[in-house]
Design a protein that fits this description.
Jelly Rolls; five-stranded antiparallel sheet; 36% strand; 3 helices; alpha+beta
């Protein structure tokens, strides 16, 4: 009888633990586009030139757009090695300084890893701005790469407590760059791996608590 009661408690706790084990939503956008793009891995990248979508969108002012469908051989290899299609690095969403680029993702609360992707086609090694995530300057005095080259930067463990994750790209003259027009080619926001729930650990904890209660 006691064993049956224990099993019922475990089942009850397991039922309510299931939602915590489900993967949280992932967010991907590609700059300079309105239409969505499905990459070679089947991942959907929403067009960034949208606002107030189910996933989020630009805020305050719609970014400008530009596109050049050219990358160096090294840039193509870099994109492939990182697991991204080259098409993601052709177009950009950008702002003419002193305007800035602002986006908001409807992530809900949690901890996330944010990846910034950019292809530079217009101001090689001469475009400078700061990258803010949740109002923190995660990449001060950033300068984009050379002509038709790319950059991929990841920022881990970004905590969100107000339901939305905010990104802000703002030109900064302190970079010494001649072009302060901030931009991005693509953005990726995924739940941090470190926050994933280990079902075995949860079950061990549950059984440990039950043993204590039985003593």
């Amino acid at each position: 009888m006691r064993l049956l009661s224990v099993l019922m408690v475990v089942a009850f706790l397991g039922f309510f633990a299931v939602p915590a084990l489900l993967p949280a939503e992932e967010f991907r956008v590609w700059g300079g586009k309105t239409d969505d793009f499905t990459d070679s891995q089947g991942r959907v990248w929403n067009g960034a030139q949208q606002t107030d979508q189910a996933w989020g969108g630009w805020i305050e002012k719609e970014p400008r757009i530009a596109e050049v469908a050219t990358l160096t051989a090294d840039a193509q290899a870099q994109a492939a090695d990182a697991g991204y299609d080259v098409e993601l690095f052709y177009a950009v969403s950008w702002a003419q300084f002193p305007d800035t680029v602002k986006y908001q993702f409807k992530t809900g609360d949690g901890t996330f890893d944010v990846t910034y992707l950019v292809g530079e086609h217009w101001s090689p090694n001469n475009r400078g701005f700061d990258i803010f995530i949740e109002e923190d300057n995660v990449e001060p005095l950033y300068v984009t790469p050379g002509k038709d080259e790319i950059d991929i930067k990841m920022y881990s463990g970004i905590e969100v407590s107000d339901g939305t994750l905010d990104l802000h790209f703002a030109g900064n003259a302190e970079t010494g760059a001649g072009d302060l027009n901030a931009m991005f080619s693509a953005l990726e926001v995924v739940p941090s791996v470190s926050t994933a729930v280990d079902p075995k650990a949860k079950l061990t904890t549950t059984w440990g608590a039950l043993k204590v209660n039985r003593q």
